[in-house]
Amino acid sequence: MLLSNFIGGKFASFKEETFIDSYNPSTGKVYAQIPNSSEYEINLAVEAAHKAFQTWSKTSRSTRAQIIYKIADILESKLDEFAKAESIDQGKTLEFAKNVDIPRSIYNFRYFAGHILHTEEKSTVMDNIALNYIQRSPLGVAGLISPWNLPLYLLTWKIAPCIAAGCTCVAKPSELTSVTAYMLCHVFKQAGLPEGVVNIVFGTGPKAGQALVSHPKVPLISFTGGTVTGKKVNETCASLLKKVSLELGGKNANIIFEDCDFEKTVDTSIRAAFSNQGEICLCGSRIFVQKSIYPKFLDAFISKTRQLVVGDPKDPKTKVGALISKQHMEKVLNYIELAKQEGGIIECGGRRIILDGELSDGYFVEPTVITNIKSSCRVAQEEIFGPVVTVHPFETEEEVINLTNDNQYGLSCSIWSENGRRVRRVAESIQVGYVWVNCWMVRDLKVPFGGVKKSGIGREGGEYSMNFFTEQKTICLAN
Ligand code: NAD
């Protein structure tokens, strides 16, 4: 499949005519070729977005919402097609793409279309002196940069609030997973989204991404990706005084107390550890278990991990698909080797899996459980972003709070306990942006989402996304 950029409502011809191979991770074969775009294409896209902003920013909320609802409806009618492409492009199971990625992408559009219809600005009367009211205005052309792990889900999590708010955008998806973003451009056309409101430019981070971040006519950047890249993006934005939102890496704790609902805890911990091959920024990859139930938990957890079928992403029995790339698979396997050097015990998994036939060159790794490792070791401190977890015993609340907070990241955490007061004490002491109690990855799009420490800056979701894409002006009318 040969992709082309989507600029000003057209599938644009491309100056350099050099393409990047994008692989199907489960076969190791090329699935798509994407334009290796540069500053030139970014400039064209920004110009198109600027032109469109003049009209789109003044288009009524109801018209914007109507078009965005239509995008959601068309996407929904093509759910199977999109899920199939996402699974081939990313390596995730078809089941996960069908039940998580694409439904959530549809909901991102529906949610923000509804949001702009049902919110109003505040006005306040100041005794009999004045009336203050707030005018909310879209900021302009936004640069949207997204990663490869939940390609359409995270791209639409930015595009939907951006265009609902009245901004226009230039989006750059990950060069590893561009196919569903390209398919989405056809949906935009079909839904009647005016030309130039969304422009999608494909290419690498250092070339197309950097050109977008540093473009003088792009006053705001919404970035989701790794912490090292986020830092670079932040440095560029700071020097140009841009508004920036950074959703970055995580090394999330899953804290299990002895009074938890045991079965539910084990089942959800398995999902939190290995969903999407562990390639979710929210995965619970550091599992802390209270000593009194540690042996029982470990037995149950290992036994359920062994039951997870790793294999063909198309097969409904498969629970763990392929990792995104050969390079990433090697990184994950290196962490497993490092764990051994650090004295860790590989309780299960630990190896690459070579499957038969067309999957023989795929990037499959067994779900891996590591114990006997200090929480201060690199494997328990750094983001592996694969199907690898470390399990650690603890005794007291204070100890587990310290262990959890002793990490550079602060994205999310799960707490398992039936004791409400304990839950509150722990939840309020943990340095993260999101705490799940007796659950994992239950998402309400109204609430603030984001990280602390090296997991990011800013919040997305509902009014928080709206605040990012708009500026509020107070207008004071004297009596
Ligand atoms: P990455 O940082 O390598 O790339 C993310 C995006 O940034 C890609 O589109 C890439 O092309 C682009 N990019 C790379 N260098 C750039 C540069 N110099 N300037 C501008 N753009 C550039 O991340 P990844 O490997 O694609 O994704 C995995 C990471 O994303 C993990 O760390 C994961 O935790 C994180 N993530 C965070 C969240 C969250 O909500 N906090 C969600 C998903 C993923």
UniProtKB/TrEMBL annotation:
Residues 16-475 form the Aldehyde dehydrogenase domain. Keywords: NAD, Oxidoreductase. GO terms for molecular function: oxidoreductase activity, acting on the aldehyde or oxo group of donors, NAD or NADP as acceptor. It holds the Pfam family Aldedh. The active site is at 247. InterPro entries: Ald_DH/histidinol_DH, Ald_DH_C, Ald_DH_CS_CYS, Ald_DH_CS_GLU, Ald_DH_N, Aldehyde_DH_dom. Belongs to the aldehyde dehydrogenase family. This is 16595_t:CDS:1. It comes from Funneliformis geosporum.
